[in-house]
Amino acid sequence: MTADTTAFLDDLMARMTLDEKLGQLNLVTGNIPLPDDRAADIRAGRIGGMLGGLVDCTFGVHGPAALRAVQEIAVNESRLGIPLLFAYDVIHGHHTVLPIPLALSCTWNPDLIEAAARVAAREATACGLNWVFSPMLDIARDPRWGRIAEGSGEDPYLGARIAEAMVRGLQGDDLADPESVMACIKHFIAYGAAEGGRDYNNADVSLARLMEVYLPPFLAALNAGAGSAMLSFAAVNRIPSHADADLLRLLDGVLKVSDFNAIPEMIAHGLGDERGGIDADDPLQTLSERALRAGVQMDMMGHGYASRLAAGVAAGRVSAAEVDAACRAVLEAKVKLGLFADPFARFDEARAARNLRAPAYRTLARQLAADSCVLLKNAGDLLPLAPEGLKLAVVGPLADDAWNLLGPWSFQGDREGAVSVLDGIRAVPGVTVRHARGADIVDDARMIELLNFAGPKVGRDPRPAAEMIAEAVAAARAADVVVAVLGEAAEMSGEAASRMDIGLPACQRALLEALHATGKPVVLVLANGRPLTLPWEAEHVPAILVSWFGGCEAGPAVADLLFGRRAPSGRLTTTWPRHVGQVPLAYDRATTGRPGSRDADPGKYTTRCYLDGSSEPLFPFGFGLGFTTFAYAPPVADATDLAGDDAVLTVSVAVTNTGGRAGEETVQMYLTDPVASVVRPGKQLKGFAKLALAPGETGTVAFRLTTADLAFPDASLRRVWEPGRFIVGIGPHADALQTVEVTWRAGA
Predict the structure, then answer these.
(1) Coil vs helix vs strand at 719
(2) Cα gap 50→493, rounded to integer Å
(3) How far is the C-alpha of 22 from the C-alpha of 330, rounded, in Å?
């Protein structure tokens, strides 16, 4: 902050009453037209920001004029004229819906992800928003947890690189730029470690694991300049994040906001004072005070700060200085966003007309959707398909469904402009297409009701299941190839969407088995928001393409890949289990004294982890196929004996495209510390690079390692590196590495 800004804030706060200061800490929902009580609260200075319904959730476009009218109340009709924050959950695009974040992470391309975030920022600000609750940085290693769809997978290193890209894309070079929004990193912290994969559940993780696995993406985002952070619903190690003062000190310097109604929900955690204390009749009093003292600066829809903290100040349980610090954090964010300089800069109707659903954004959406797809299997080079004269059966409940392909958190999405896989294929010249639904997404009435909470996305065909399957089988028998588009409905992933069974729903599996029985080659296209358990599918279906929830251009992007107009280049950022009983299953798991290693027979183990199946994943972290092949030369280290903190190791590898098509390879570098003072992960990702190679072309990638890459929390939680032997592995995924060993000694 400049001296002038400091003086401005000092003067403003000196003129504010306690109620006006508490009003700045109050974040509430609102709708347009604005209710009279909300307008009155804005005039009285009792609201600092608004979220949610101010941006039309019925898929229409309010345009910035509607939000401008609300801002004018704050600026022109309140005593001090303090502008409002306008917030929304912009998770993967806004009106132009992009692939879900888990899909975007599979591009392994931070530059492309930054471009995606920039599009989201431009569309959000074109609607008048200045604050977005994104990116979601929770490391997730349990695919039962529905919110795995919103993050970047299981790896802290990759998650950190994506976090930096997202913050840069959302915030731009200057938060005051009318096309920039303030990012809100969430959910702090270890929300993805929820026990049993049950959303909102608590977690019990060691401090070392917090430091090494869950914290790095947040620290990277903070270093990239993230302006705010949202806390987690969960209690981690027995303390809800909204009451954990020690943990929240890691977020010093950014605006800290509660999750929706999360401060009152600490009552259900069992916090409070039932020993005759101040909250015997009103636990929200104690919890609001505790949250403020812990460092939570804005209360989202908890209503406790606005209604309880004045009494806390009067009683001396909350200090005026604590209220002032929280209020100042909110005001500083508004200064950085340029709201005091020009509170109406983001309300530009002409820019809204240019930016919302711009053709260039659709073009990027199509590229992102294609680059996010992961080809898991392609037996006999079934893909790509030759379109000329091809008779294709396109079947499945998600084939002619564009709305569900938008995925969760797409409330503002342009549903009418979304393109299904069926329509994407029909646009390919030379292909004769026959379509059949074949099955419902799910056939359970209660599940359908739950999945339609945000709109009627999931229906039930009135025909018997056998009749639908028979129609699909007839289409398959008349075709050369079958494309089966199966998977999840949009709301089967996301918030409050945990699943015990993460395989295909039974009605879809029955359809796929019937299609397989025809003997026709089947391409399985998956629309999904999480890793799925697919052991039968992996054994019997010749080609499997994971398209995730690919957004508004998912259909054309899938068609581009099926017919070879683009080559698949996505790589998994999560380990895919064979069975839900293996969960959690991450690539960096440490070996044990009896690890279940394979003997000479790949189907047997010297020591079994499970009596009833393999302990190996179905598809490993980093895995993905293309339409060509790549050969890796052995990695070469520029030194094998290094010494001291300042030494730098460079490891290079040459990669050759040995196939007949151009392709893009994601070269991955992992580090193993085989002997240490504490048990270490079996391997850790420490670098990656994308190589685009023509047939026969060779490219070289060089990775740089320093002692910072060797460091870890020791038994006392000090971050140290220990001299010794290290193994650097390079390859196409975590389970296919060539290695080189180096010795790194302490300095003289």
Answers:
(1) strand
(2) 26
(3) 11
pLDDT over 90 (residue 281): no
Q: What is the distance between the alpha carbons of residues 231 and 229, in angstroms, rounded to a whole number?
A: 7
Query: DSSP state, 490?
Result: G
- The verdict on domain 374-569 having CATH code 3.40.50.1700 is yes
How far apart CA 544 and CA 538 sit, in angstroms, is 8
- Any idea what DSSP says for residue 577? P
CB-based contacts of 487, cutoff 8 Å, min separation 6 = 398, 504, 508, 526, 527, 528, 532
Q: Judge if pTM exceeds 0.90.
A: yes
630-745: CATH superfamily: Immunoglobulins (2.60.40.10)
In this structure, the strands spanning 724-731 and 663-672 are antiparallel
Nearest Cα neighbor of 289 from 232, 243, 234, 241 is 243
Complete DSSP assignment for 72-120 = HHHHHHSSS-PPPEEEE---SBSSSBPPPHHHHHTT--HHHHHHHHHHH
pLDDT tens for each residue of 727-745: 999 999 999 999 999 999 9
CA distance 629 to 351: 45
Diameter of the chain by CA atoms? 81
Q: Catalytic residue positions? A: 259
Whether 210 and 253 have beta carbons less than 8 Å apart is answered as: no
Look at the domain 15-352 and name its fold. TIM Barrel (3.20.20)
Q: Which amino acid is at 310?
A: A
d(CA 128, CA 258): 22
DSSP-assigned beta bridge partners for residue 667: 689
CB count within 10 Å of CB 171 equals: 24
> Can you give the pLDDT at residue 35?
86
Q: What token pair was written down for 341?
A: 């300089």
- Cα distances (angstroms) measured from residue 611 to each of 600, 616, 645: 19, 13, 46
Mark out the alpha helices in 420-529 (DSSP H runs).
421-426, 445-451, 465-477, 506-517
Q: d(Cα 554, Cα 545) in Å, to the nearest integer?
A: 12
- Tell me the pairing of strands 724-731 and 738-745: antiparallel
Q: pLDDT class for 32, splitting at 50, 70, 90? A: confident
The reply to whether 15-352 and 630-745 are identical in fold is: no
Q: In degrees rounded to 5, what are phi and psi of residue 707? A: -65, -20
Instruction: Please give the C-alpha separations between residue 493 and each of 120, 143, 405, 528, in angstroms, as whole numbers.
Output: 21, 10, 12, 8
Contact 54, 31 (CB under 8 A): yes
The residue extents of the domains of the chain are 15-352, 374-569, 630-745
Other beta carbons less than 10 A from residue 634's beta carbon: 10
What are the pLDDT digits (tens) for 135-178?
999 999 999 999 999 999 999 999 999 999 999 999 999 999 99
Sign of CA dihedral 187, 9, 84, 266: positive
What is the three-class DSSP state of 64? helix
How far is 149 from 346, CA to CA, in rounded Å? 30
